[in-house]
Amino acid sequence: MSTLFIVSTPIGNLEDITLRAIRILKEVDLILCEDTRETKKLLDKYEISKQLLSYNAHATDARHTEVIELLREGKNIALVSDAGTPTISDPGSMIVARAREALGDELSIVPIPGPSALLSALAASGFPASDFLFLGFLPHKKGRETLFKEIAASERTVVFYESPHRFEKALLQLSAVAVGRRICVARELTKLFEEVKVGTVEEISAYYTENPDKMRGEFVVVVSSI
Ligand code: SAM
Fold first, then answer.
1. Which residues line ligand 1 (CB under 6 A)?
2. Model's pTM, two decimal places?
3. DSSP label at residue 20
């Protein structure tokens, strides 16, 4: 019986990895990763030398078949992404689903929990967090405005990811529909320039207008429930 481990890795600070994750990365036969250069930085830090096989959002049918055959032969494989938990706004769900379908009970699928930007941001926001909605990356165009209206009307805390070049636009769109609403912007979590700002959408927009240099890096936006 082989095992496919879904291993969470750091979202910035390379110390944020569990002892179990390090052990699994050392023990498996190979590691499926998004970008071999990113994963190598982590492996070098922990002196792990392991065969890497690329698995990203463009993984072909042939790559899926290859991985399933390796598992069928009894190889143990770890799946990682560039940061955080694989499959969460990252590649991975397809290989998990296809491997399970192909191998059934011959395969164990084992998650190795660890960092995810959405949970760290939610925890730091201080907003109600026992019932929340995670939207991942918002659509760039189609449906975007409607989604902001839904966020504004939500009785649940809402969390979403945004890229730096769409972050400003997101704040503008949110300001238009969620007047006075408290939001949290968690930027560069666990990294040198980590910053968590909490305030009304107007206060946060004013802060970023006054500090355009802070409009870079990685962002999670959390919108408090009504
Ligand atoms: N799988 C990852 C996870 O578990 O969080 C998410 C990967 S997704 C491709 C990348 C997005 O996650 C970024 O654009 C940003 O919204 C968020 N993110 C990842 N790392 C972050 C960090 N250190 N600080 C703030 N946001 C981060």
1. 11-12, 81, 83-85, 88-90, 116-118, 161-163, 186-191, 218-220
2. 0.96
3. H
